[in-house]
Amino acid sequence: MVMSKRIRFYFDFLSPYSYLASTQLPGLAARVGVHIEYKPVHVLQLMEKVGNEPTTILCQAKLAYAFQDLARWSATYNVPITPNPHLEKIDVTPLLLGAIAADDAGVIEAYTNAVFSAYWTQQAEFRDRAELLAILTEAAVPAPEKILEDSKSLADRLEANISQAVNDGVFGVPSFVSNGSLFFGNDRLEFLESDLS
Questions:
Q1: What is the torsional sign of CA 76, 80, 85, 90?
Q2: Cα 75 from chain centroid?
Q3: With 52 labelled, which of 101, 137, 139, 173 sits at a CA distance of 20 to 30 A?
Q4: Contact between 11 and 38 (Cβ < 8 Å)
């Protein structure tokens, strides 16, 4: 069955709120009969292009609040979340490129679930390709070796996603675009679902 209603879901694995949103989108999609288009973007590059700043990183008071807020959302959604102590060392670009390759292979949801879980519940370091391959294999993502091999040539596609996000008015993640309307933040999923119903 082809679904006429679609959501573009802009996300970055380094965003815990993107992780939280990803746990809720399948249920939303099932309730309203909508197709989710996963759009990985490098959020810091996106923010630079639109003149936004990562204030959660720059402001210690906001960062401290964010940890409290994440715990509240974790409890609300009944999903685990554990701050990753390796955040500053993780190169997220290979993970984003892998998501594009996984989308081409038709397994984007399984891939993003595996990477988000490793990032935000298992404190993965993502040191190298071997660790990512092990994560995908453990999560039973189909053909992980091919996904990682194909991802090496997809830098232009990642840049195209960022450009599309800019054109959609996106300034951060998670963001959702449907019927020409933009919704920012996992706390706007209720508004998104209402708009689609």
A1: negative
A2: 20
A3: 101
A4: yes
Number of domains in the chain: 1
Nearest CA to 21 out of 171, 194, 174 is that of 174
Find the DSSP H helices in 51-187.
Answer: 55-58, 60-77, 93-104, 108-120, 129-138, 144-151, 155-167
Please enumerate in sequence order all residues whose Cβ is within 8 A of that of 164, keeping only pairs 6 or more positions apart, or say none.
8, 39
Active-site annotation, residues: 15
Six token digits for residue 105: 């292979």
Confidence grade of residue 100 (pLDDT, cut at 50, 70, 90): very high
pLDDT in tens, 170-194: 999 999 999 999 999 999 999 999 9
State which residues form the domain around 87: 5-196
Report the predicted TM-score, pTM, of the whole model to 2 decimal places.
0.95
